[in-house]
Task: structure prediction
Amino acid sequence: MPKSKISQLPKTPGVYTFKKDKDFLYIGKARNIKERVKNHFQQPSYRDNLFIGKVNKLGYIKRDSEIEALILEAELIKKHQPKHNVAWRDDKNYFYICITKEKFPRIYVTHQIGRGETSTIGPFVDGKALKETLRILRKVFPYRTCKKLPKKPCLWYQLERCPAPCLCQSKLAKEIGQGFTSTIQRRCQRNVRNLVKILQGKKRQVLTDLKKEMKKLSKEEKFEEANKIKHQIQALEKVMSHAHVFDTFEVQPQLIIGWPYQRIEAYDISNIQGKEATGAMVTFIRGQPDKNFYRRFKIKLFQKPNDVAMIKEVLQRRLKHQEWPYSDLILIDGGKAQLNAAQEILTKFNLKQIKVMALAKKRNELYVQGQKKPTLLKKLPRQIFNLILYLRDEAHRFARAYHHKLREKSLLA
Result:
């Protein structure tokens, strides 16, 4: 269709393309095709500006889910090799799924095409979405990821994300006999086979095969196994329809509790009874982490553990660095006390234009500047919910990593 008919694009997951006459300029995927394409024109990035003025035609293909859109995007980029899919021209940015040809196959993501004892699916451009897709599909088709089988089942088995071929090495397996190992092997290979078909765009074939298998097991009166297949079918249909795997912060600007944001800082404190206490600051720009602006602080406060005092210290030290760009919004780990402490420090530095929120872990309650009662995080729009949790978890991870590093140093001293 001509570029002028953007308003006719569907608001569904799928793949879209920009063309100049017959030439493919760019191919992308989206949760909402119409909004994503509009965003390219209304708020073009540096990369968009390389080609957006040349576009005179649009194209799209609808899909039932984001996972199917991801798979189709890889297929179409491989086929048409659009000029401005920058990542496509850099081998380091390719992502492949490798499947080993072992008795108990292993699946992993890599930047290199598999050789010899592996088969490969790809290439994929969006590594983050690919890994999230595998994480989701692993709930339906558990698979092995370990390079070497451990002596006993790990956490992935406890979470029902791995068939645990390591059990075949146990005393129990030896007592049961070869039948046990054969069952685990069939389960591993069947799950990987179905997962590969999904990633090749053969969802309907997988569902058809599973339904046939379920009926066959029912006729043989193997009702327990048939019921497992039934749950697998239901789970697959659910995740393929509703799973979100794309960047939820593509469209800018969004609002958080009525505030527009471009730059957000999130803070976390990590300590054990006040010892080796550390503070961490992570920075997100337009919804994405920017590690150039991550900062960590070794707490200088020498007194009993006091999270409020510690957050005050970290904020004061951060705000003294005027050479670091100030944020639009600050997220603090904590509740009302931490929120008040942050506001006090911002007032002291005459930075009232910076807004503050505090997230209390226990019930995921969000305390917001200017609001008397906290807001339950789960009541917020999904994209805001995801962003706030992402900010909190990243700040927590960064703080803990520094804390552990300092503790190791003190133990070795």
In short: Residues 101 and 112 are 17 Å apart (CA to CA). The radius of gyration is 25 Å. Residues 248-253 have pLDDT under 50 and may be disordered.
